[in-house]
């Protein structure tokens, strides 16, 4: 058993993360308290982490991303949802879309458009086939024998 320095009660060793630098090999706070402290720190320093992430992943500053958004009229490049609507719906900014092979930054996309492209593995021929597939079934008269009622 070990006492958490934050919440005080003694807890089983399994409730503490490992830390090789400590004498007993365990962190001084339990996992639950560590999670709370880290979340609070992240929330208080969110701008720093967002900027750090942008710089490390894409080599972009906040100013450069904001400039990209302005050039796109603060809309997703594909579906044109506004940044404001997107933030209300997902509580986050647009994604920086980029080529996963070359690293080239393309445009800012909403979460849905960015996920769709990623799910199709950035393969334009696969995206075209998906579009043709959708168009094919929209053009067909509805065959009632193939309709499966949706459970709601």
What's the quick description here?
With 152 residues, the chain is mainly α.
Structure description:
- The protein is mostly helical.
- The chain has a domain of 70 residues: 3-Layer(aba) Sandwich (His-Me finger endonuclease fold), CATH 3.40.1800.10.
- 46% of the residues lie in helices and 9% in strands.
- It contains six helices and four strands, in the order ββααααββαα.
- A two-stranded antiparallel sheet has the order 1-2. A two-stranded antiparallel ribbon has the order 3-4.
- Strand 1 and strand 2 form a beta hairpin.
- The longest helix has 16 residues.
- The N and C termini lie far apart (49 Å).
- The model has no long low-confidence stretch (mean pLDDT 94).
Task: Itemize the secondary structure elements and their pairings.
Elements: E1 2-3, E2 10-11, H1 31-44, H2 46-58, H3 62-71, H4 83-90, E3 95-98, E4 105-109, H5 111-119, H6 124-139
Helix content: 40-55%
CATH names the topology of one domain as: His-Me finger endonuclease fold
Q: How large a portion of the residues is in β-strands, by DSSP E? A: 5-15%
Q: Give unreliable regions as ranges.
A: none
Intertermini distance? 49 Å
Query: Which radius of gyration do the C-alpha atoms yield?
Result: 24 Å
Main sheet properties: 2 strands, antiparallel
Order of strands, main sheet, comes to 1-2
Structural class from helices and strands? mainly alpha
- Topology as a string of helices (H) and strands (E): EEHHHHEEHH
CATH classification class of one domain: Alpha Beta
